[in-house]
Design goal:
The protein has two domains: about 260 residues, Aspartate Aminotransferase, domain 2 (3-Layer(aba) Sandwich), CATH 3.40.640; about 140 residues, Aspartate Aminotransferase, domain 1. Helices cover about 40% and strands about 15% of the residues. It is built from twelve helices and 16 strands. A seven-stranded mixed β-sheet has the order 1-11-10-7-6-2-3, with helices on both faces. The two termini are about 20 Å apart.
């Protein structure tokens, strides 16, 4: 690729062109059977994705938000409960909590992994909550609300430290629902079980999103709940389909959250390639790490602990003057994004929770420094070299400007 060629943030065209004939077969099958919602293609995908995740059950739903909402409701979270998660995630995490009738609250993240800090979860439960003697419920001191669940987010394709989170949750009788919407195929080494476990197989249940840009993406909206709990699985099946086990027999008031047959067929076809796609993402991440190794003092690359096998849904660096770096990359026809620029506790939508700037300093600091570089299986090494060249060019001028203030990054062409 020439220096004038644009490097996109995400390439959704290449894999679909490569699989075009296989995907067209799915569409033709749907046309000939007229099974557009549910049906055999959904059943087959659910079975295969359950095996992929290492669980007994998978329930396909309409989106990742549906998946998390249904998992919380099916796990017993009640209206008015408090569900704990992290402030540095996409709002769908907290939307699902609210849509389940519960109230989201936050604990701080680990600055290395950007995932939930189990020690902060423990601190929250020990200092901000108490056990009500009459009921035995764990209540938030400030709000009086029962605290019943925790949602660790496997952000950017890397697993949270689940052993420690599960320990804390078990001590306080909390349900753990994994937000695995960015972690298809990621793995965690459980010291408690002395084996690697896949994302979606560790908590009481997990939510996956198959939004098109995910490691495993549909050609539209789709999601899934994974679990080893047969009752929870059955409840999700009812919730997604208007609360019915059989047609017009409604046991509960449910939702319209079913998975389309065409999307399930597309996902099943793509699932056969996911291991290889994830391998390529890990290879691209290693390339980035090596290319950026000379800039370790000024560019923070992703940390992958020994207990994690990340799948790099995103490759996120940290750097001072992030916005200027993003502008510099854009001038060079290199697309980048920020995931996420404003932590949820500072979003207007959550002013009612009463948080202010400074309450989650790690989340706030990282949000001001993170930048997601292009990451997808078809990303070429020469493209990565050009991206890193522009990053290094920027930080080099940044370093020089500290000694010579007249040299500013804006002077870069």
């Amino acid at each position: 690729m020439s220096d004038n060629g644009k490097i996109p943030f995400l390439d959704l065209v290449t894999p679909h062109l490569a699989l075009e004939e296989e995907l067209l077969l799915i569409f033709r099958s749907a046309l000939r059977t007229a099974v557009f919602v549910g049906g055999e293609m959904v059943d087959e995908f659910e079975q295969e994705f359950a095996r992929f995740c290492g669980v007994q059950y998978c329930v396909g739903v309409g989106s990742g938000t549906d998946a998390l909402r249904f998992a919380l409701i099916a796990a017993g979270v009640q209206p008015g409960n408090t569900v704990i998660t992290v402030p540095n995630t996409f709002i769908a995490t907290t939307e699902a909590i609210s849509q389940a009738g519960a109230v989201p609250d936050f604990v701080e993240i680990d600055e290395r992994t950007y995932n939930m800090d189990a020690s902060k979860l423990h601190e929250y439960l020990e200092t901000r909550c108490y056990i009500q003697e009459a009921t035995g419920k764990l209540l938030n001191r400030a709000t009086g609300r029962p605290v019943t669940a925790v949602v660790p987010v496997h952000l950017y394709g890397q697993m949270a430290n689940m052993d420690r989170i599960l320990d804390v949750a078990e001590q306080h009788k909390l349900v753990v629902i994994e937000d695995a919407c960015q972690a298809h195929g990621a793995e965690y080494f459980s010291g408690q079980q002395n084996r690697w476990k896949g994302a979606g197989s560790i908590g009481r249940a997990a939510a996956f999103s198959f939004y098109p840009g995910k490691n495993l993406g549909a050609c539209g909206e789709a999601g899934a709940v994974t679990t080893n709990d047969p009752l929870l699985s059955e409840k999700v099946r009812m919730l997604r389909d208007h609360g019915q086990r059989q047609k017009y027999q409604h046991e509960v008031e449910g939702y319209n959250g079913r998975l389309d047959g065409i999307q399930a067929g597309i996902l099943r076809t793509k699932l056969h390639y996911l291991v290889d796609w994830n391998r390529k993402r890990r290879e691209k991440a290693r390339n980035y790490n090596e290319l950026l190794s000379s800039e370790v003092d000024v560019v923070t690359v992703p940390c992958e602990p020994s207990w994690a096998r990340a799948v790099y849904h995103l490759y996120v660096i940290r750097v001072q003057n992030r916005d200027q770096l993003q502008a510099h990359l854009a001038q060079a026809n290199i697309a980048s994004q920020i995931h996420y620029p404003t932590p949820l506790h500072l979003q207007k939508a959550y002013t009612g929770l009463g948080y202010k700037r400074g309450d989650f300093p790690v989340s706030e600091k990282t949000a001001s420094e993170i930048l997601s570089l292009p990451m997808y299986p078809s990303l070429e090494l020469d493209q990565q070299e050009r991206i890193v060249q522009k990053v290094c060019e920027f930080v080099s001028v940044q370093s020089a400007s500290r000694w010579h203030p007249s040299l500013q990054p804006a002077s870069l062409s």
